[in-house]
Amino acid sequence: ATGSPAASGTIGRILYTSGATLLTTDPAWSAPQEVGTVASSSCSSPASTVTGQTFPLYLGNFCYIGTGTDVCTAPGGQYEVITNAVPEGNSIVVRPVGTQNLIFVYQGVIDRAEGIRWSPSGDSFLFVVGDAVQRGFPNGSFSQVIPTAYNPIFSPDGSLILYLKPVGAGVKDVFVSNADGSNARNVTNAANIDKTCAAWRN
């Protein structure tokens, strides 16, 4: 049970939508609270309720990956990730902006819909292979940080990753981990209620 609508001041750092309800949680909470009936969902900013509450959202630095060549510039403009369609799927390279110093990161089948998501500081970026979240760096290295996730989003300060994870048949819970994937935790714990569009409050 999610209880009565959250009072002003108890709205967590995370908002998400379930059916016609806007809910809130926080990296330290394990039980969500209802905010109210959705007027506009948390899928885009701002989310709002029918009673007039409005919440600007941070949805991260997202670049779509198409079927050709796409360039995704980091916040601050120091680096850019270039994705290119190849027979094996896509290649990912990174380079300092304004140079041709291409540094190879990855080649294979990636989840194009999940795109490239830069950290707020531009020190790393996320891409998804299968349902596994990879964290890449401007030096060309990368590692798997989350084995199964949907819609990973760095927090506004870059210290955490917010994502949805399957917990039952057709149901996803909201999880948070550190940026390196450590200390993953379920912050909704409601396996009977599906959740969508988890986003950070801005």
What would you note in describing this structure?
The chain is mainly β and 202 residues long. The protein is built from no helices and 20 strands. The strands form four sheets. It has a seven-stranded antiparallel β-sheet, with no helix packed on it. Strands 7-12-13-14-15 form a five-stranded antiparallel β-sheet, with no helix packed on it. Strand 13 (125-129) and strand 14 form a beta hairpin.
In short:
The chain has 202 residues and is an all-beta fold.
Total of DSSP H or I helical runs spanning 4+ residues: 0
* Shape summary: elongated
**β-strand amount:** over 45%
Strands, count: 20
Order of helices and strands: EEEEEEEEEEEEEEEEEEEE
Mean pLDDT: 94
Low-confidence stretches: none
Q: What is the SS-derived class?
A: mainly beta
- For the CA atoms, what is the radius of gyration? 18 Å
Terminal Cα span:
26 Å
Question: What summary fits the major beta sheet?
Answer: 7 strands, antiparallel
Helical content band: under 10%
> Largest sheet, order of strands side by side?
5-4-3-2-1-20-6
